[in-house]
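Re: weekly structure request thread

Next one in the queue (598 aa):
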Amino acid sequence: MNRVASPQALYAQAFAQFRQGRLEQALQVLGQLLQQAPAHADGWNLAGVIHGSRQQHAQAVQCYRRALAAGAAVGTWVNLGLAEQRRLAPDEAEAAFREALRRDPALVIAWQKLAGLLEDTGRHVEALDCHRQALRLQPGDLRSLSDALLLRRYLADWDPTVGPHPAEVVAAWRLANRSDASPMLLLALPEADADLQKSAAATFAASQWGPVLVQPPLAGPPMPLAGRRLRVGYMSSDFRAHAVSFLVLEAIAAHDRGACEVVLYASGATADDEWCQQARAASDRFVQLDADDQRAAQQIAGDRLDVLVDLNGYTAHARMGVLARRPAPVLASWLGYIGTLGDHRLVDYIIGDAIATPGTMADKFSESLALLPHCFQANPRVPDLPIPSRDEAGLPHDAVVFCSFNQAYKLHPALWDDWCEVLVRVPGSVLWLAPPRDEIARDNLRREAAIRGVEPQRILFAAQLPRQAHLARLALADIALDAWPYNSGTNASDALRMGVPLLTFPGDTFAGRMAASLLTALGLDECVLAGRGELVEQAVRLGNDGHTRARLRQRLAGLLPGARLFDPRAMAGDLERLYRAMHANAMAGRQTTIRLSG
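Done, posted below.
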């Protein structure tokens, strides 16, 4: 006689399946449980979590409301708020978070999630207050520290009398053995070295995908290439108007279709904009991945790829849960995240080059290095665009215009010291910046300039413009200044392709060596300085010497027409050679550094 499992046993079984990433099986068990015990609050809550992880937000909302009706714990209000937020119902989300806090004002996660919602809806000061309330309740919490500091950086809020401060975040990461905070912020902190970036990435990977990473891979062994094309997949949430698409789509379109089959996997919601249309046209097949990581990984595994290239890493909307299931025999990380993912089971290779990721830095990565022969960064061709006037761009006619179009979170007090020194020593010059996400950041940057002896009106902010219009106006700048320790990436190549010289110095991390790689590949070595002081002196020299500045711009203009850096067909060929080397390694059962010759 078969015994009917108890609700407790069924819930334990469902939870175990969920922890192992077997979401379909977990839902099947929960179906049995909830049929047997319709008022099982924890069962409804877990069902909501699973539906949410599969991007089925309406179903998740229904499950959470059933759980709450059955007397679920106060944390379920937080889960409901997240589901409402993800189904784009911010008012309902805020109401749920505030109800959780009404019931338990000391619930740290509710303060954290309310802060995230307020930030997403542009209420940045309120959001920062919520982060700080979470820290008052739980000092040293890594998630609250990281989120609050990142928001402060976006607001250019560098007030040393209030926190959190970078040193606190770095100290918390050094102590962490678990974390749901992304390590991406560390790329932009001068206080965080490459060793900390690696250990933090490892902590994050183990915390988020540890149970999945120990499962057998979905993909079978590599297959011989004889008589067929190399099958390459690119996975990204950013096949849309995004920097990744700006960089890669022409190179992907240039792959040799006689030798290489290309599949693009859209891992998030796609907007049917011109960039998504270009992505579709650039590939043999364009696949919208299932919202469930297991099913998405099975989709990819069914295509029997040779190499899968992830273009997200630890950036927004990433699908690391797909990679963790190993849906291809070779996995590589490229362009999206300029650092290690921290666990060799997530990807096998990180694609770099001898300048950005030299062999001497190999121990700073969990992945093996796969070094392209020129520059790690793909780029489209140099455009032929009509250049607007300085009047149209809101720039002074006769001033030397220094520029940086990096996001505000890459800026920090020491960098601002350097840039303001340049402005002080180049009379009448201006600094042209990207539009920040909040007026508070504009006010803060201008105030910080005044503290350093620079008239606030010399800090100019560009308007938000479409991609081509932005590129066209870039040509109006005289000199681009690189950020450190997190360099300009797309912004650096944008300035160069529009004829604006960029000044940089190589740092100690991948993120800090991007611009040096671009300039070296272009042949503009004189713009790669030895350090901060040398960069400031060169910027001052160029700012005060119009003839030298003009000669540098002429030299850059002469390099652009034949520049391999802006040759997507050449990049496509190099990538194909790199992927074949990865495949050959896999066939031989080895994983070693790959160095392509030029």
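The mean pLDDT is 96. The first strand starts at residue 230 and ends at 236.
Next request, please.
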